[in-house]
Structure formats: structure tokens, C-alpha cells
Design goal:
By secondary structure, the chain is of the alpha/beta class. Helices cover about 20% and strands about 20% of the residues. The chain is globular and about 40 Å long.
Length: about 210
């Protein structure tokens, strides 16, 4: 069994394409790509920690999306996750601390709520604002359509596993912690904006524009 991490898929959220410069024409293309990318990585017996914000728009479709995704899914609730639709997940948490590959990992949706309970923290929530905040870094405030998070000092190294900075697919702890390994995957065709080296990507944050 392999363990994977992801966050902020935002199934069926049309505006997230605009807000985060996602390289999709519409929600149908985005939903299909997220599901395809997930299943290319995750096996039927794998475990995925999804760190929140599964969908917006028609949340009643969450069980439908879940049925199409491989593996067992443990959801750490985000600010957009609520209702009986969440019963389709194997486990639902407010936060969690796990041991994996000799590393104690704190899992929570909002980086502002990291308590420093592990060696590192994995988060979502902030989409494409940043990928890594080292311990001691002053994390900038985060403004979104419906909320505001004040800045704070990172108590541990904090890694964003949201799809907007992880190639629109789940990632392993090794990929998260080894940034050189992750960037090698980018060079091999998986970009942090979700395109590949053969696409004509319009995302200004695309690594192939560097």
C-alpha cells in the first residue's frame, strides 16, 4: 500500500479556473482531468489523505466523484467541506498526526492552524500562493473570496499539497519533502500548473515559461 496526499480539488467550481489560472476550458475538462490524474497515480489498495475542499457548486455530486477515485480516502475537512455527502469517505477528520517513513506529519487544511505537532506539516487551502514555507518563515496573510487569514510564523516546515502546485495529482511524502525529486518530475513532463512540456500552456505560473 502506498500513501498519497492532495488537497483543494474543487470539483465543479467554475471560478477556481479563473482564480488560480487552472489550464482548463471548463469544469467538465477540469473534473475529468483531476479524476484521470488521480487514478494514474493511486492504486485500488492505496490510501489518500485529502486535506480538504473537495468540491464547490453542486456538493451533492461529491459521492459521485468519490466513486470514480481509486483507493481509500481519509478526508481532513476544509472550510468548504460539510454535510452528509462526506459520509462517502472512509474517514473524516478535523486534523490528524501520522507517522510515515520515520517522519511525524501534521495534516490540516489551513496552514494558519498548524500547531507544530510533527516534524513537518502538510496543508492545503492557499492554492497556488506558495508551495513551501520553511520553519521560522513569516507566512504572508491570505485573502480569498470568502475569508481572510492573518500572517503568522511557521512553527515547522509547512508544505502545500494542493493540486494547484502539485501537478493536479496526488503526491507522496517523498515527492513533497524532496523538492529536487519533484522538480525532476516537472522536467520529465509533470508541471506544477498541471500541463506537460508539449502543451501550449497559458498559465503565467507555468514552469515551462521559466
Amino acid at each position: 500500500m502506498k500513501v498519497w496526499f492532495t488537497s483543494d480539488l474543487h470539483f465543479s467550481h467554475a471560478n477556481i479556473i479563473k482564480y488560480c489560472n487552472r489550464p482548463f476550458a471548463d469544469v467538465d475538462e477540469m473534473n475529468a482531468t483531476l479524476i484521470r490524474n488521480w487514478n494514474e497515480v493511486v492504486g485500488p489498495n492505496d490510501l489518500v489523505w485529502n486535506l480538504g475542499d473537495v468540491a464547490m457548486g453542486n456538493r451533492k455530486r461529491i459521492p459521485e466523484y468519490r466513486q470514480q477515485l481509486n483507493g481509500r480516502i481519509h478526508l481532513v475537512r476544509g472550510n468548504h467541506d460539510y454535510g452528509k455527502q462526506l459520509d462517502c469517505f472512509d474517514e473524516v477528520h478535523k486534523s490528524a498526526v501520522i507517522e510515515l517513513d520515520g517522519v511525524t506529519v501534521e495534516l490540516i487544511h489551513n496552514p494558519r492552524h498548524v500547531k507544530g505537532l510533527g516534524d513537518v506539516a502538510l496543508v492545503g487551502h492557499i492554492h497556488n500562493k506558495w508551495a513551501v514555507m520553511p520553519k521560522g518563515t513569516v507566512v504572508p496573510e491570505y485573502k480569498a473570496e470568502d475569508h481572510f487569514d492573518a500572517g503568522f510564523v511557521a512553527p515547522v516546515d509547512i508544505f502545500n499539497v494542493g493540486v494547484d502546485v502539485r501537478g493536479f495529482r496526488p503526491v507522496s511524502l517523498t515527492q513533497v519533502l524532496d523538492q529536487e525529486d519533484f522538480h525532476k518530475e516537472i522536467d520529465d513532463g509533470y508541471c506544477s500548473c498541471g500541463c506537460n512540456a508539449h502543451d501550449q500552456c497559458k498559465n503565467p505560473n507555468c514552469c515551462h515559461h521559466a
